[in-house]
Amino acid sequence: MLKRNEEAGVRAVSPTLEITDITGEARALPDFADHERVVAGRDSARGLTAIVAIHSTVLGPALGGTRVWPYAGFDEALTDVLRLSHGMTNKAAISGLPLGGGKAVIIADARAGKPRAMLEAYGEMLATLRDVYVTAEDVGMSLADADFLHTLTPNVTGTTAGGSGNPSPVTAEGTFLGLRAAVRHRLGREDLAGIRVAVQGLGAVGWALCERLHAAGAALTVTDIDSTRVEAAATEFGARKAGPDAILAAEADVLAPCALGGVLSERTIPALEAKVVAGSANNQLARPEDARRLADRGILYAPDYVINAGGLINVAAELSPGGYDRDAAMAKVATIPDTLDEIFRRAAETGATTAEIADAIAAERIAAARSA
Ligand SMILES: NC(=O)c1ccc[n+]([C@@H]2O[C@H](COP(=O)([O-])OP(=O)(O)OC[C@H]3O[C@@H](n4cnc5c(N)ncnc54)[C@H](O)[C@@H]3O)[C@@H](O)[C@H]2O)c1
Which ligand 1 atom sits closest to the C-alpha of 223? Predict the structure, then answer.
């Protein structure tokens, strides 16, 4: 039997699942960034520890995927979900979508398998947030997981049944188009023939990006912590192999981070060879000031949440009044280079970094919606 106990600040929807509002606790962290609401779900019987962070619902319900990752602890997971969630608000706003930003994490090792009971408990947690948060896939969350969660609660996108399916190829398409725009802007080249691209991470997006880059004639250098993927890319695309630690400083015109965040830092930026950074990973900058470090070295940075918005644009199309229309979604993805062109132009005119301009455009749209 379901029970509710909101007075105690704890809302349990099944006897074993405890849902706690931890907004107050999160407020103490440097990455809090005025989140509207942060909620933890714990179910020790079913092996769930999850956090849902809702950064903003000003433009619409907060949409953002669920990441399943073996975080070292709760605090690390909380910091990650806050940063990711904040990024989703900017991503939706700059992409012109009627959506807010949110994100969720489950502390678990997806490679060790995701117990059905854990996902059931998570689905129950999601159901309690269905008016404010809509989830989708992210690292460690599969299409099959999304399909399963959708049987429990409607606020799940990126499903196969009547949904838009796997967002990763669409993210890769948007990243490819954005990378081409950045190359045009920084290197003055209209095509990618012979352009050297170093790709970090050969997962769902990185691999699909390599397919497009290879077809466009780019010369690839690749890495992944999974060596079988690196070998496969060498065979499939004639890619040069680099070690995970060597990829950032690889001889390349473009660096495409497509693994995890925080790779562009005070330590790594001085060693970059590339003149363009354009990849799909979220939160590529370790600190906001790393955007200035890149600009000072003459490296053009395509802000992550602009270039990797393809997947969000695709799943968001499911929520449009007429339902999912792939052609309409792809037409919107094709505008990513236009947004980047505007950012690059404004950054060149004002001397601000591309990251600052992207944040400013997103903030302008949110402020306009607030005052409307
Ligand atoms: N899938 C999407 O539609 C989408 C949308 C927007 C942003 N992103 C972001 O793009 C990135 C990649 O997403 P994905 O869906 O391809 O994830 P994925 O899990 O399919 O792939 C990630 C790949 O990176 C590799 N990797 C992890 N750590 C590494 C390291 N230190 N060095 C080299 N390789 C490493 C993994 O082995 C894996 O092959 C993530 O940051 C994700 O948040 C994805």
Answer: 33
Total-model pTM? 0.90
Does the annotation list 203 as a binding residue? yes
168-309+337-364 CATH choice from 3.40.50.720, 2.60.40.10, 3.40.50.150, 3.40.440.10: 3.40.50.720
10-89+98-152 and 168-309+337-364 in the same fold: yes
202 is in an annotated binding site: yes
Euclidean distance between CA atoms 285 and 298, whole angstroms: 16
Nearest protein CA to atom 2 of ligand 1, as residue:
168
- Residue 233 and residue 202: Cα distance in Å, rounded? 8
Domain spans in the chain, listed from the N-terminal domain onward: 10-89+98-152, 168-309+337-364
Pocket of ligand 1 (CB under 6 A): 138-139, 167-168, 171, 200-206, 223-226, 229, 244, 258-260, 280-282, 308, 311
Burial class for 187, CB neighbours closer than 10 Å (0-12, 13-18, 19+) = middle
Degrees, nearest 5: CA angle 263-292-348 = 120
Residue with the smallest CA separation from ligand 1 atom 28 is: 259
204-215 and 168-187 helices, crossing angle to 10°: 50
Burial 15-41 (b: 16+ CB within 10 A, else e): eebbbbebeeebeeeebbbebbbbbbb
- Residue 22 backbone phi and psi in degrees, to 5: -115, 25
Please state the φ and ψ torsions of residue 108, each to the nearest 5 degrees.
-165, 155
3-state helix, strand, coil in the chain (%, to 5): 45, 20, 40
Cα pseudo-dihedral 254, 257, 263, 267, rounded to 10? -20
Tell me which CATH code domain 10-89+98-152 carries: 3.40.50.10860
Q: Consecutive 10-residue runs of the chain (372 residues): their mean pLDDT?
A: 37 85 97 97 98 97 96 97 94 96 98 96 97 93 94 93 87 98 98 98 97 98 98 98 96 96 96 98 94 98 97 93 93 98 98 98 94 86
Could you identify the residue written with the tokens 């690292």? 139
